Write a sequence for this structure.
């Protein structure tokens, strides 16, 4: 390969992902941001102002003067949005906690399974992705509804006297979230745990540690990067989750995804919906930034420890 | 540290210990008695079962049959964390998220030490491996030699009665290895702890051990001091494992006075030491440095053509082609007492009967 085409090749390798991000993330975000500063209108598209490309410099000036923060002021003034945001964060945080508690032992068991079993277990975790997400959440309705499988089983076992109202309750939402996002918690954790040197837990046992102590003092601390990655992979999309609260949470469940949906499709208020979307983005980017900061601080502390 | 209090009877005793992995027998009916305070080496190529044997003593593998006892205690069914035995891992297995001090102190928990006692133990350990001042460092900021010493100190922290070391010097470079061998011996003598080292390096085993056990495909084939194994090996395998050796096929002849036997070989009649029934097929093993190379015309010996002489600093290595086409290797310490024969000349090889050892074929 000549030097020029080699450089061209390298440029492409670096440039393509950037181009992809710009085209499918930055541009749509810029459009959303712009709409969030606009005003709703009964028009096509349903907001004002719309930039007139032939309006010249004067047209640009008028365009920018018409933009304002009105939608954000509305969000700040109406408790509905604040409550929806808080409740979304609460659901996501609670579901993430549940996922950590279920996912950690699952991933640990997978990582400790024999080499013959591990690929099979990984495949079993991935298999649900072969079915539509929507259908899988729908299936939970059949399980959770008052005359559904879960209640029928509990009644048969004599554990309850009357069907529990799990469907259309916060509990139903949490079950749905924990079910749907489990692979995103298990896979990164498994990736880290399966790469730990087995001699480390052996060394802990050799030094007198019980299995539990070896797990909590050696395996778990060394799996924290996987745990953090899994938690973020679950937490972020769960904050904006729409399908699960809509299908399993009933009409009273307040989550940002549903507010967003109703602003867009019921009220046709694109500018307000866009403002909610931007707020959602800030809510979920916040934790990532905080996480990165903490990570950097820890790395610096480790550097400092080296002297 | 704990040199002065020898507890009664801490001998390790293996009795017909066997371990199979599916169809393959990794360790085959190994019996072994270890003296107190002994430095023992398990020697063999990779896959011979030496590591599996060590892991069974540590408790990471369970024998299919046989017993492992330490003094009066039957270890066979005890989990690793209940055994008064510690192991130094080949990869060191230092906890990467802990400081040197935390690594060393990990095993002190549950020993019932007071805070002051634990701090004292930590200080002793750091001094023992000359790592004072490194307490706060993370393992990944240490050199290979320092990591090796942390691993050793951590394995000694619980003052085990028996320390197992899996290729303890395998990851070190050559120069450091020799220095560390001497250090390891010194520490073992000072503490009086029994050591079992697993290694594939015969020179290392000879430098370290009081006794060496040679393993071949799961079996312990010969146990003895380095010198016995080197000079009086039990088989071709042991002879070859301990160092370079000339093997000459032959048939055993009559016995002579002084335990010397004559052996009929393709090179002629040779005299050698050893036992066996007359008429048996045997192999004579002679170490190259035991062959004496002389110029042509020497009275007694085998005559051959010197095809190669390699200068190695402290010694010279010869290759001599014999009349029947086989090549014998010889070596002589430098400076040599006599003249060094020239390549291409005919030489005479003397095979001292006491250095030629008879093995079963």
């Amino acid at each position: 390969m000549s030097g020029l085409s080699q450089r061209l090749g390298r440029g492409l390798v670096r440039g393509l992902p950037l181009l992809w991000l710009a085209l499918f993330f930055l541009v749509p975000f810029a459009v959303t941001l712009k709409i969030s500063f606009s005003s709703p209108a009964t028009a096509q598209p349903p907001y004002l102002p719309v930039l007139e490309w032939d309006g010249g410099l004067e047209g640009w000036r008028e365009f920018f003067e018409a933009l304002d923060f009105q939608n954000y002021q509305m969000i700040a003034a109406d408790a509905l949005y604040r409550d929806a945001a808080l409740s979304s964060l609460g659901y996501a945080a609670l579901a993430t906690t549940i996922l950590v508690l279920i996912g950690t032992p699952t991933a640990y068991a997978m990582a400790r399974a024999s080499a013959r079993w591990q690929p099979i277990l990984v495949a079993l975790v991935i298999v649900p992705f072969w079915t539509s997400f929507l259908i899988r959440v729908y299936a939970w309705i059949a399980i959770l509804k008052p005359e559904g499988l879960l209640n029928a089983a509990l009644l048969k076992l004599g554990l309850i006297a009357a069907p529990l109202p799990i469907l259309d309750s916060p509990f139903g939402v949490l079950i749905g979230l924990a079910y749907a996002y489990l692979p995103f918690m298990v896979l990164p954790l498994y990736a880290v745990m399966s790469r730990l040197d087995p001699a480390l837990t052996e060394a802990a046992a050799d030094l007198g540690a019980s299995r539990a102590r070896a797990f909590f003092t050696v395996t778990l601390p060394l799996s924290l990067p996987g745990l953090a990655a899994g938690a973020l992979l679950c937490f972020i999309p769960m904050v904006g989750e729409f399908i699960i609260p809509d299908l399993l949470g009933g009409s009273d469940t307040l989550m940002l995804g549903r507010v967003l949906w109703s602003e867009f499709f019921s009220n046709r208020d694109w500018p307000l919906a866009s403002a909610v979307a931007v707020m959602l983005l800030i809510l979920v980017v916040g934790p990532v930034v905080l996480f990165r900061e903490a990570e950097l601080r820890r790395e610096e502390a480790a550097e400092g420890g080296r002297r | 540290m704990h040199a002065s209090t020898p507890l009664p009877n801490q001998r390790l005793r293996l009795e017909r210990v066997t371990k199979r992995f599916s169809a393959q027998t990794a360790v085959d009916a190994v019996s072994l008695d270890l003296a107190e305070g002994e430095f023992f080496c398990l020697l063999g190529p990779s896959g011979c079962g030496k590591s599996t044997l060590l892991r069974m003593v540590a408790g990471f593998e369970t024998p299919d049959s046989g017993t492992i006892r330490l003094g009066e205690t039957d270890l066979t069914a005890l989990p690793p964390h209940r055994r008064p035995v510690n192991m130094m891992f080949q990869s060191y297995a230092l906890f990467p998220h802990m400081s040197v001090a935390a690594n060393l102190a990990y095993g002190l928990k549950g020993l019932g030490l007071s805070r002051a006692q634990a701090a004292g133990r930590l200080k002793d350990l750091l001094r023992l491996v000359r790592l004072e001042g490194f307490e706060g460092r993370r393992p990944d900021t240490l050199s290979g030699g320092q990591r090796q010493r942390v691993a050793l100190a951590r394995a000694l922290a619980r003052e085990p009665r028996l320390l197992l070391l899996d290729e303890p010097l395998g990851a070190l470079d050559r120069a450091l290895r020799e220095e560390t061998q001497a250090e390891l011996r010194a520490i073992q003598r000072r503490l009086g702890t029994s050591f079992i080292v697993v290694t594939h390096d015969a020179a290392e085993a000879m430098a370290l051990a009081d006794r060496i056990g040679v393993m071949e495909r799961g079996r312990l084939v010969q146990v003895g001091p380095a010198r016995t194994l080197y000079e009086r090996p039990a088989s071709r395998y042991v002879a070859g494992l301990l160092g370079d050796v000339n093997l000459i096929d032959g048939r055993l002849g009559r016995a002579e006075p002084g335990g010397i036997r004559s052996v009929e070989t393709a090179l002629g009649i040779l005299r050698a030491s050893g036992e066996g029934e007359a008429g048996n097929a045997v192999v004579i093993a002679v170490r190259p440095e035991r062959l004496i190379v002389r110029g042509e015309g020497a009275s007694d010996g085998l005559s051959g053509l010197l095809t190669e002489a390699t200068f190695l600093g402290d010694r010279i290595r010869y290759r001599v082609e014999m009349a029947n086409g086989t090549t014998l290797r010889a070596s002589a310490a430098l400076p040599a007492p006599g003249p060094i024969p020239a390549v291409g000349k005919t030489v005479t090889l003397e095979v001292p009967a006491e250095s030629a050892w008879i093995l079963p074929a």
Summary: The mean pLDDT of chain B is 91. The interface with chain A takes residues 58-60, 79-81, 86-87, 89-91, 93-97, 99, 106-107, 109-111, 136-138, 141, 154-155, 157-158 of chain B (CB under 8 Å). The longest strand of chain B covers residues 12-21.
